[in-house]
Amino acid sequence: MSDPAPNDDATPPAEGLARLKSSLEARLKALVKSGPTTPRHLREAVRHALLAPSKRVRPMMVHLVAAGEDYLHLPALDAGCAVEMVHTASLILDDLPCMDDAKTRRQRPTTHIVFGEATAILAAIALLNRAFGVIAELDDLSPSIRTQLAEQLSGAVGWEGLVSGQELDLRGTEGVDPAKIERLNWLKTGVLFVAAAEMGATIRGLAPAQTRAVRSFATHLGQAFQTADDLLDVSATAAQAGKDVGQDLGKTTIVSLLGQDLARQRCREHLASADRALAETSLEPQPFRTLIGKFFGSLGTEST
Amino acid sequence: MSDPAPNDDATPPAEGLARLKSSLEARLKALVKSGPTTPRHLREAVRHALLAPSKRVRPMMVHLVAAGEDYLHLPALDAGCAVEMVHTASLILDDLPCMDDAKTRRQRPTTHIVFGEATAILAAIALLNRAFGVIAELDDLSPSIRTQLAEQLSGAVGWEGLVSGQELDLRGTEGVDPAKIERLNWLKTGVLFVAAAEMGATIRGLAPAQTRAVRSFATHLGQAFQTADDLLDVSATAAQAGKDVGQDLGKTTIVSLLGQDLARQRCREHLASADRALAETSLEPQPFRTLIGKFFGSLGTEST
């Protein structure tokens, strides 16, 4: 069985997903266009981090829930881009010398390596801030929907989300159990996955029961994704992963607690639970299954 | 003539302003309440920075424009708190070792000195993010107004605001002229002052002509404020200023370009222009004049 390779962009996804990804990347580029007086160094740092090769799985999730893969829906694309900006900001910060001190990310040197720490931090701030600006400017959606999207995104970054996850991760994870690790994974990865799906559900106007199923789907997928990422950290080379590996040495992860085989099994169980929840969402499942198949490889195929 | 002392909290402001300030501080505290699972270290870092002694001039500006000083208007208080969160986030970051490397701020050791760099950065992110969350949650205002406020705040932080100002400041200011320095001051200070005033105007529903006058008022006040801050940096002790002084040594500022006397004169001219614009806003001018008198001391008094 091959290892999950979430950063493997060599396999072309199905045509609809490929078109969606390239539309998302065009919008990302357009949404960070700066004025003539913006400092070039800062603008380049933002582009370096945001436009680097990436799976774009979070913005794809927003769009697939909001509008599927066939019809390109501009507000769904832009809301997805806002989520991708937040995710990219978190990667820039996680990689800083005072955090994980990583050298490579998305197949490029990390932002602080190329542009210096100060500019990297400012680029992260610019991205987080721009995400909320993009949401406020979604003129095709009612202000009430935009306000809900902003609340969902802010909730995913705040006390019950990314910043707390990163703080807990920095404080070390000695002596923790699988439940605590899953809580950390929830804060570091799951919350933003779920916010992406929920933002899609808000844009589509799904009923509460469907939205709950969407949340459950995204929760399991987020756990599977984080476990796959932990497996990648111990088994892939930096070139395969497109980022530093071995970063978790000395940290407790699902893999270090359970071993690779059990972690793989747990990943498959989460993917199976995700698929069951997907069936309850009333959304067309195929694009999601294609996306999952692409990113989890044979791990995903076996589980669905 | 005494030097401007923007950080002097010894002189009690007029009663209305004092009540407004204490209400703002109570709301700041309430708005960053965290859940039981939020990492304590992170929560304490946010409170350390946000609840430290401060003039609260930006949130006061929001409230005075939106609702005056007599009637405490909850959405105006909270929108002001959002601006104060953004301002505090920018102070935390400006003070980092890779930026200005400052040791004292708001009469306390800087956030990274007490909590470490990583947590300081996460605290800044938490505050910026919370600011947008607070605006999204302003249930007493229509979603359309909330969306406008989010756009105004995001505009002040982004390409044409704080992040660009800080990047330009880091890149050095050798060989620049007063016009370029005023552009830098505009990005670093003016834009957020003006956004605060404009957010107040949006909440109050001011007509376009009045909003233009409010913007002009805040623009001049912001320039006066930054010049006073530069004067403070060369003439006050750290204890008087409540933060590191001498930080601008080697940097070009209005003071280093024009000398202290001309800088003081320029500051007075901006205050006079601010007062003329204030008269055109149709807002009750007295609370603004009291606020300005308090912060600019005899410099302000002579100019009005």
Please, could you describe this protein's structure?
The structure is a homodimer of 304-residue chains. Chain A has 304 residues and is an all-alpha fold. Chain A has a single domain (15-303), classed as Farnesyl Diphosphate Synthase (Orthogonal Bundle), CATH 1.10.600.10. Chain A is built from 13 helices and two strands, in the order H-H-H-H-E-E-H-H-H-H-H-H-H-H-H. Chain A has helices at residues 15-31, 40-50, 57-67, 74-94, 111-115, 117-136, 143-157, 162-170, 178-204, 208-235, 238-241, 254-279, 286-303, and strands at residues 104-105, 108-109. Chain A has a two-stranded antiparallel ribbon. In chain A, a hairpin with a 2-residue loop joins strand 1 and strand 2. Chain A is globular. The relative contact order of chain A is 0.14.
Provide the fold topology:
The structure is a homodimer of 304-residue chains.
Chain A lengths: L14 H17 L8 H11 L6 H11 L6 H21 L9 E2 L2 E2 L1 H5 L1 H20 L6 H15 L4 H9 L7 H27 L3 H28 L2 H4 L12 H26 L6 H18 L1
Antiparallel strand pairs in A: 1-2
